[in-house]
Every structure is written in structure tokens, then in C-alpha cells.
Amino acid sequence: MVTQTAATVLAGALFGAALTASAVYFPAVITSQMHLQDFHMLKVFLVASASSALVIRALSIYGRTSFGPHSPSTIYLFNSYDANVIGGVLLGAGMAISGACPGTVFPQIATGMPSGFFTLAGAVLGGILWVGFGFKLKSPPSRAPAKPASSAPPTIQTQLKISTTEALVAYQGVCLVVFLLITLLVPQTLLPPRVPIIGGLLVGATQASSLLLTNNPLGTSSSFEEIGHWFWYAWQALTKPDQLKTISKKPSTRSMTFVAGVMVGSWIFAQLSAECLSVAKTLNKSPSINAQNAFAGGCMMIFGSRLAGGCTSGHGISGVATMGIASFVSIASAFAGGMGLAAFLR
Fold this sequence. Notes:
By secondary structure, the protein is an all-alpha fold. It has helices spanning 2-22, 27-34, 40-61, 82-98, 105-110, 114-132, 156-160, 164-185, 194-214, 222-239, 254-272, 274-283, 291-308, 312-319, 325-345.
């Protein structure tokens, strides 16, 4: 138990250090991306997702992981991906106004960014609301058609009828071309050009440490769902203690342990890296996120990410790396939702 907890904390710490090295946790980086003013965030995402895909494929070949694509998330409104779309839009909109995503809020806390604390409070509320009320949205109505018992989650390769290797090579090529086009056509204004490459590769590499140390892919929004489960568990203990006898075990703490490690790793890296301190001095001069936006955005992005079945790390770095259709839909919806809201508020 102690060994597994230590491994989870270590995996989280490595991820936190990588996020901090990539500088993608700064609110200015995220809001500038959503306003299409700077593409540092997208460049980090492309490098991290592409390298994560290589890691997952290599570990799969050698039998070190069985991690597969996410299943479509639905609330039975218009198609099997409706919750991926709606949840993704909420996730992106929350990111646009809070300047954070479910994973980067922890480096923000670790490095003492004021808006991060309000975002965290909103995110905790989002987890509580999701577990208490939102989770029921995924319950199938009586009229819903039964899902096939053995159907595998759709992927790019199954839809195009190509091999996994061919899909992986194609994805690497798309990421490379998009990265080069952004680099050539859009000037890098916030950070040096090497930062998204180095930071993205480090984030992708921590996929290996997470899978090897914990047998779980990168993902952080589930930690807020765990907090929600603990809140309602405590609520039931206070209001209906007799019903606790029907609960076979207490809620999990695995994801909360992982994000605790994220904060530890982020703090250590920020203290030891002179470049990180220099970048912080520059980006912290950007306009700050007010408390109301941070709180509301935190709540939106967690509720949305749980509705979609994953966040920017769970879907974006891990899920997309498996070529899962649900993850592509969720991440595309997140960017669309964030950029759409940013344009509306401009």
C-alpha cells in the first residue's frame, strides 16, 4: 500500500515538473491560446500528444500496458458522442475564463498564483455537483437502445480500416505539419520557441512513468470526482449514518494522491529552475484572472470534463494517443468552446 502510494506520488511529481517546464500552466498562455493571440499551448499539446502516442504504442507492443481508447460518452440527446461534445465545450469555456485546465490548476497552486486558488475552489464544487447530480445525466432512459455488449470503442484505425501503426504514423505526420505551420505563420510572442518542444516532450515522457509506476494513464479531472464522492460520503455519514452499512468500501483516493504529487513536483521544479523563475516574472505581469471568472471557470471545466469522460490530459494527452474517436471529439469541442467563448467576450 505504501509502495503503491509512493509510486503514485512520484508519477504525479514527474508530471507536475513536466507541466511546469512546459509553462503551459500560466493563465496568460491558456487565455492567449483561446483568443488566438499566441499558440504556445497548442504547440505543447501537439508535441505532448504525439510523443505520448509513441510511448503508449511502444509499451503496448512490449506488453507493459493494456490502456485503450475511451468509450463514447452520451446523455442520449442526439448521438453517442453528445456528452463528449457538450462536456468538451463546457471544459473549453471554463478554461477560457479561468486561464486553467484541470491539470494546470495544481502547478498554479504550487507556484502561488492567486487565481489558481479560486479555480481550485470552483473545480471542487464542480466535482461535488457532478457526483451529486450530473452523473445521473448518463443514466440511459428506458427508450434508449441497448449497447452491444462486446463493442470496442471506435478508433481512427477501425473507422478507416487501417492498421494501428499506419494510424500512428499518420497522426505523427499531422502533428508535425500543424506544428511547423504554426511556427512559420504565427509568431511566438510569450515564450522562446524551444519551450513547447522541450516541455511537450517531457509531458509525453511522463506518460511512460505514469503507466509503468501506476498502470494508469495521465489524467487529473478524476481527482475532483473523487473529492465529490468523499463529500457525499461524508454527507451521508452525517445525515444518514445507518445507510453507510450498505456501502461496501470507501471512495478511492488514487487520483487525489496523484495530483498531490503533481503539486509537489511542480513546486520543486519551480524552485530549482532559474528559467522557470524568469518566465514567471515575465508572464505574471499579464492581466490577472479575477476571482469570479476563476471560480466559475473551475466549476465549468470540471463538470464538463467529467461529462465528456476526460480532460485535456485524460483525453488530450492519453485518449487521443490511442486514436480514440471520443477523445478527438472531446478535445476538438474543448478548443471550439474555449475559442468561441473568447471571441464572444472579446
